[in-house]
Amino acid sequence: MAGGAHVDHNSNKGVALLIAVLALFLALAETGAKSQQTEAISRNIEAANLWAFFQARTIRQTNVRTAAEQAEIARLALPEAAHPHVMRQQEAWRATAARWESEPETGEGRRELAARARAAEEKRDRSLAAYHQYEIGSAAFQVGIVLASASVITGVGLLAVAGGLLGVVGVGFAALGFFAPTLVHL
Question: Which parts pass through the membrane (predicted)?
């Protein structure tokens, strides 16, 4: 009987080691998930801010274009001597509207703002995908820990094997989160 207890003791040590390894990977996956979640939130705010700036530029550009068009109508009612001044102002407004369409030197033209906002959205989407992969990996590690713990209590070795297999699944999803978060969509 003492020999049987010794075998169970060694088996329990193996399961305890499995649980410790699963807990380590769980901690790493949870850290990765939190990091990616924070990154996704930051990129979402960045994209929203850039789209708001884009929208403000569009409104200002529309106002300036409308002012130039209204000045054209008003010019016809003015004396001939005022026409050159009005035309200069119209050209200034049109030049401003054109500059706001594309301003590569500052990155604040509508085209540049839209491109920057789309890039932030892509980074956000990649971070969200990584977050989800890490979370699935974390769930696999947690269930693996539960199964391995249950094997100690019940003495059913297959539960420890199932826990170990779930650990492998968890490592797979955590690796996807790190290396290729958009490869698998769940």
Answer: 156-180
| Alpha carbon of residue 8 to chain centroid | 47
For the residues of 120-144, what is the DSSP string, one character each? HHHHHHHHHHHHHHHHHHHHHHHHH
Dihedral pair phi/psi, residue 103, rounded to 5°: -135, 75
How many whole angstroms separate alpha carbon 6 and alpha carbon 75? 103
119-126 contacts, C-beta under 8 A, 24 or more apart? 120/43, 120/44, 120/46, 120/47, 120/50, 121/43, 121/47, 123/39, 123/43, 124/39, 124/40, 124/43, 124/44, 124/46, 124/47, 125/182, 126/181, 126/182
Q: CB-based contacts of 30: which residues, under 8 Å, 6+ apart?
A: 134, 138
Report d(CA 182, CA 159) in Å as an integer: 32
Q: State residue 10's pLDDT score.
A: 78
